[in-house]
């Protein structure tokens, strides 16, 4: 691969990552405000985004922190919520070209998100390292930068504005789950069962928020898998 191709690969990745970055900005901004409203220092909120890059995991994490949950709860919740990223990385590993050394695999795996995976997986041919770095650069910058802006503005914005913006993160989750729930009964059942179980567990003070997330995630996923098993695709006749 010559220098021109490498440069184009990075620029192409950078261009593909801009829409993802713009989408991350509003969500990370809301995360920063939400974290500060829970009593987490702004610099800590920024550090969380710099080292995690996972919206659902970070929201669950700050909830456990605010509730003074244990490290075991935090570890278990993050493992369950973020396990999908390991599967995404394994899938993408089949598309990497020969220039992907162990170092490149480790550094790019750090910033594999749902959106990055979707864009990268639909590319034709093998993926060079420079394309992946370009694709992930802007989303990472905007995710961390948006958190910083939200965290520091959270200290000066009126309480009414912060409360209104805090609702946005729940709107984000609704935007994620409603479309697939409308198309799949299995997804709809999983969402409704998980929400109902979460409401029931909220009436038991002895069960912390971290344990509640773990129970709801495992129970909803397990029961949905039993009731709505994925049908195997019919094998074509050879």
Describe this structure in words.
With 238 residues, the chain is mainly α. It is built from eleven helices and no strands. Helix 1 packs parallel to helix 7, helix 4 packs parallel to helix 6 and helix 10 runs antiparallel to helix 11. The two termini are 37 Å apart.
Short synopsis of the structure:
The protein has 238 residues and is mainly alpha-helical. It has helices at residues 3-37, 42-52, 55-66, 71-92, 102-109, 114-121, 129-153, 159-166, 168-183, 185-201, 209-227.
Protein topology:
Elements: H1 3-37, H2 42-52, H3 55-66, H4 71-92, H5 102-109, H6 114-121, H7 129-153, H8 159-166, H9 168-183, H10 185-201, H11 209-227
Helix pairs in contact: 1-2, 1-3, 1-7, 2-7, 3-4, 4-6, 4-11, 9-10, 10-11
